[in-house]
Amino acid sequence: MPQPPNATPATLHPRNRHHGRYDFAQLVHTAPELAAFVMATPSGDASLDFADPAAVKALNRALLKQFYGMRQWDIPAGYLCPPIPGRADYIHYLADLLADGNAGVVPTGKAVRVLDVGVGANCIYPIIGHYEYGWRFVGTDVDTTALRVGKQLVASNLTLTGALELRHQPDRNSIFSGILKPREVFDATMCNPPFHSSAAEAEASNRRKERNLGTNRQARPTPNFGGQGTELWYPGGEATFLWRMAEESALFRESCYWFTTLVSKKETLPGLYKSLQKLGATEVRTIPMAQGHKISRIVAWTFLDAAQQQAWREKRG
Fold it and tell me: Where is this region: Disordered (predicted)?
């Protein structure tokens, strides 16, 4: 049975670097190009037009430079430009999960290997995970353009040397198959799955987001955080994608200690729990997260029994 979640946190993870309001003065000092997008609110505070994709990208570039040492960072127009504080939270909660199996100490360094399913052109999770904890990542994607941009990102930032290997997933219907090599092991996997079921559903969501942001500039909305089709939707939506992930994880049950994923919709949880129980997961945990009014959660599962977990710790320690 899944472990019940603790109370939903009211704020970001304690180790998250992004508590409180953005310091736009410091960010502009770090990345002067951000100044073109900073504006004053009616109360006199500095802010951005978060409905503007160019402003969101400039903010991300400044945050990654100031907090994570990225000298160069860019993504093609229309690709997912994720909100960094929430992505950092996933990394920190994953670190806590790994610490639970390491006498309460977060394991750091290149011996810790993490598989990022759907790494995208932005490579956000490997950037943050390597900077904060020194982990090594393998990032997968079905989009060859995203992988090409990701390789350029690695080549342009010495801090990522040896930290991120990118692999193409040629089959959109596969998650781990065709990616994991024989006898290859990972301490954890992570994923931000596509949660819409179709392009039409994704577009409708973007329209709602524009209304909430108080802007409706175009007949066809442009999502402020971007996103290609494979990043935003999957036939059957989040529930089908995660069902497939669970099924495939069972095929590689001894290749990974913790399989994890974000789950955006609470309605997805019962079906995922049921699938994992049928597949023989020995432990399932639900880790709540919150960023402002947005509530999400990480679901983590393992197929290793107590003896196998102990053997893993001894071998990988």
Answer: 198-229
Distance CA 39, CA 62 (A): 16
Contacting residues for 46 by C-beta, under 8 A, at least 6 apart: 24, 25, 38, 39, 40
Query: Residue 192: which residues within 8 A CB-CB, separation 6 or more?
Result: 82, 87, 90, 118, 125, 261, 262
How far, in Å, are 201, 203, 281 from residue 198 at the CA level?
5, 9, 30
Range of the domain at 83: 2-10+79-316
Give me the amino acid identity at 163. Answer: A
| Domain presence at residue 179 | yes
**CATH number of the structural domain spanning residue 173:** 3.40.50.150
The answer to whether position 253 is within a domain reads: yes
Average pLDDT of span 92-117: 96
Q: What is the pLDDT of residues 51-66, one digit of tens each?
A: 899 999 999 999 999 9
Instruction: Indicate the number of domains in the chain.
Output: 1
pTM summary value: 0.88
Distance separating alpha carbons of residues 152 and 75, to the nearest angstrom: 10
Cα separation, 126 vs 198, in Å, equals 28
